[in-house]
Each structure stands twice: as C-alpha cells, then as structure tokens.
Write a structure and sequence with these properties.
21% of the residues lie in helices and 33% in strands. The protein is globular. It contains five helices and eleven strands, in the order βββββαββαβαβαβαβ. It has two domains: 95 residues, Beta Barrel (Elongation Factor Tu (Ef-tu), domain 3), CATH 2.40.30; 115 residues, Nucleotide-binding domain of ferredoxin-NADP reductase (FNR) module (Rossmann fold), CATH 3.40.50.80. The chain has 229 residues and is an alpha/beta fold. It starts with a strand and ends in a 7-residue tail after the last strand. Keywords: 2Fe-2S, FAD, Flavoprotein, Iron, Iron-sulfur, Metal-binding, Oxidoreductase. This is FAD-binding FR-type domain-containing protein. GO terms for molecular function: 2 iron, 2 sulfur cluster binding; metal ion binding; oxidoreductase activity.
Amino acid sequence: MNLKLVDKRREVSGVYSFVFKNDEPFKWRAGQFLMYFLDHANADERGRRRYFTIASAPFENVIILTTRFINEGGSSFKKALLDMPLDSTIYAEGPRGSFVVDDSDQSYVFIAGGIGITPFRSILLELDHKKLPINVILLYASGTRDFVYKKELEQLAKKHPSLKIQYIIFPDRIDESAIKKNVGDLQKPFCYISGPKPMVQEFENLLPKMGMPQEHLKRDYFPGYDRYI
C-alpha cells in the first residue's frame, strides 16, 4: 500500500514523527508494525527497507512512524525519510506482529527503552479510547530528560489511576532493584519489553530468574540500536 506523508514533526531532540494517510481501508491492532520500502539514491548496506512500529492507535485513522535520528540523519534510509516532502508517498506492507494486548483485564508491566515507547503509545491510547481498563506499570528509560510522548502519557495517567509510570534517566537503569520496587509480585502480570536489542535480551534473561513465568513475556526489539537506551 502507498502511504502519503501529511505531517512531519519533531518530538524531542533527535526524534521525529511522520504522519501518513492511507486512501485504502486498512486495519491493524495496537502494537503491530509495518515494513516500509523507500527507494533512494546511494542506499547504504542496510538497504531500502525498514520495520517500524505503528505508533498511532487504530482509532486515530493515521499511521504514525516515530524514530530516532543520529545527528539528525543516520542511515541512508533515515536520511531519505527525513528529506521526504509533504504529499510524497512511501510503500508499506503489513501489518505484522503479535505485540498486542489480548486481555485488558490482566495486569501488565511495560518496559520501554528509548524509542521502544512507540508500541506502548498505540496500546495505551487504544485501551483508553475503547474505555477498557489500563492495569499497567510502565517503566520507561531514556538517555536524556526528553521522554518521547511524555505529555500524552501523563494525561493518560491522570485519567487512569491504575496506570503507574516510572521514568528512569541514564545513567540510572531499569535493573532488578527497580523492578522489585515498582512491580513486586512477578508471578501475575504479563510483561511486554520494547527497545534496543541488548536491553530486550537482558530482560528476557533477568525476568525469569526473578520469578516471572516465561510464557508471560513478550518482546519487540529495535534493530540498529546498539546502545542500551
């Protein structure tokens, strides 16, 4: 499907959101992702395609791609994305992925590292829109004080007392003590982990050792980010 760029905005330093519209009927579930294809000259070794979470909730009727840029650029794909003029198009396939909430009555722990907050924006906004319970502890780590979507998250937390948000700023990390302090009983909640691959792998190893059932874990890692957050 061809998506038309209708808006481009800076979220925080180095992070931009691209808002696309699709003229054809398109359905997805909050937390899923698309594969994007962007033809551009002098493509680097990473090529002309990328996977990005759909940061918007289905009810918003737009597709939002939010991503981080290194020095306002990075790979040839991201440079071409940043240079896209309004009303130009990008090709995408999907949706894909099972990083979705099936039972809103369950309790959840969401662990987000940096730009890994994107699927949680979609999920939380969709639950709120459908007037479903939000029984979530969100542990959100960032390399700076600029937390993407912080204003929206704070508004949701005011509406939903059962949404608890803990912000962690580097050099502090989401570690075993932070999890014990904020979560407590690890037997009951389901845990969704989203962020750079090293961070996701760390929690995949740590949480079962702390007592969380393996079947309660879901992950969504972002390739191309070697840093922890």
